């Protein structure tokens, strides 16, 4: 199946944490790539939607990320001990790639959908650039484009 949806963790993946909302280096460029290359990009996070949205709004207000890279992001409501990709409405797990820093949230049988990223809490970092290349390779292989 072709990959259509990208799910993104929030804390330690895109930002430091929801309270401080420091942007990971390269965040705007990474989101622009994701929105251009995937049909849908959704947040899959332990942070409640209202708090996730206000953290992203803060990034926009501070000029770190343009609103057009934040507004299209969906949000996945979910419960349970794993971030089960079946919670993503309108896509089969095989059509999803998922970027998260924490292996503990990944369903054992969905590990092939997971793209690991080093946890970030500030400072210089190139992980979003590296992960962008990994995603591009996965798209090229799975979608034969
Ligand atoms: Mg995380």
From TrEMBL:
InterPro entries: FCP1_dom, HAD-like_sf, HAD_sf. Gene3D superfamilies: HAD superfamily/HAD-like (3.40.50.1000). Residues 5-136 form the FCP1 homology domain. It comes from the Bacteria. It holds the Pfam family NIF. This is FCP1 homology domain-containing protein. It comes from Gemmata palustris. The lineage of its organism: Bacteria, Pseudomonadati, Planctomycetota, Planctomycetia, Gemmatales.
């Amino acid at each position: 199946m072709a990959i259509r949806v990208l799910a993104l963790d929030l804390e330690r993946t895109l930002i430091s944490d929801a309270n401080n909302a420091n942007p990971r280096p390269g965040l705007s460029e990474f989101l622009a790539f994701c929105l251009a290359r995937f049909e849908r990009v959704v947040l899959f996070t332990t942070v409640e939607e209202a708090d996730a949205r206000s953290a992203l709004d803060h990034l926009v207000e501070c000029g770190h990320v343009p609103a057009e890279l934040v507004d299209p992001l969906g949000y996945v409501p979910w419960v349970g001990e794993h971030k089960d990709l079946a919670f993503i409405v309108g896509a089969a797990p095989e059509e999803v790639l998922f970027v998260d820093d924490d292996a503990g949230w990944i369903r054992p049988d969905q590990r092939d959908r997971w793209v690991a990223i080093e946890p970030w809490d500030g400072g210089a970092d190139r992980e979003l650039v590296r992960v962008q290349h990994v995603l591009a390779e996965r798209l090229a292989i799975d979608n034969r484009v």
